[in-house]
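thought: fold this chain, then report.
action: predict
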Amino acid sequence: MNKPKLLFYCQHSLGMGHLVRSFRLAATFADVFEVIFINGGPVPEGIEVPKDIRLQNLPPLGMITDSHELISRDSEISVEKAKEARRKTIMQLYLQHQPAVIVIELFPFGRKKFADELIPLLEAAQQQLHKPLVLCSLRDILVQNRRDQQAFEDRACKTLNRYFDAVLLHCDLAFARLSDFFKPNVPLQVPIYNTGFVAPDVFDTQHVTRERRVIVSAGGGIEGGSLFQTAIAAQKIIWKKARIPMTLIAGPFLPDNEWQALQLQASQTPGFTLHRSVDGLMPLLLRNEFSISQCGYNTAMELMQSGIRALVVPFQTLMEDEQMSRARKLQRAGAVSLLEPQQLNSENLAEAMLDLQDRPQIMHQLDTNGAENTLKTILMLRNRQQHQQVATL
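observation:
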């Protein structure tokens, strides 16, 4: 029996967190659906593509952090040519596969610059006689400091009401609700489902033998330079006071000039090991006692699942406050220690890291079965939709 088809769109523009979470979801969906995964950014080394999905890479686009200007990740093609090719490919895939379900990651809560390739897809789905189930896959917390925040939320709400059947919010209900950070003046007419966190598999962290070592990471590394430089400087203090070794994973997206500077700095630092990238951070988090990192969604999930003693220094700008919001919630839940980014210097980082020695192992009560719960929710919604379609015949 042929599986129903599910079209999954994911555009990661800065780091790789959106892609990692979406791949975890897609791998679970593949148990029931034939998954056609549309990927709009580069797939970095070290990220394994789920074996049971059909991956369609679009000409990769990204974004400059400060200006939010689109850039092409392929030097052979311009942004405009890439966008034209992407629009054509997306519509071809939709018409070819006629999916029963469409899952779009983040949009319309983000990715406004990609609306010109998504709205035609949503319009086509809207006009189909047996309309596919259209769902938004959404992380736990959203940016709230846009200059036009209210107008943005109202526009997003109108898009949801027109095209979407539900929002899948990937966090525990006790951690966050959509209404915590989304307050449009327009009434929201689509249901919200908290799925639990989309996290790696659970491990038995009670019986893990750990090395007295600190692991430093920042996701893909694209915005990790400041944290990395400070961590290497802090390691000289940590080594002098406690002889704790440090391993730093720079990440595949750290700019080459910053990587070269880290190599030079690392060569003069005692008890220090530097890696460009590794095949998965989780094994390191399970084998070692301490972590210093930013607080992106997937990093936070790995910290909670591994049970490591964790210090987070969230990435934050005037327009990007999502990691700080997550970090403060996790700190209140007792899952992490927090060092505010404006307090980041070598002395403060070393002191905060050494304080982790007195922290107990993380024992959280948050739901981390988000991938399985999301699949169950999709099946429930699809079954309901099919019954409604039959009733109207």
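thought: worth noting. The CA atoms of residues 91 and 203 lie 41 Å apart.
final: tokens above.
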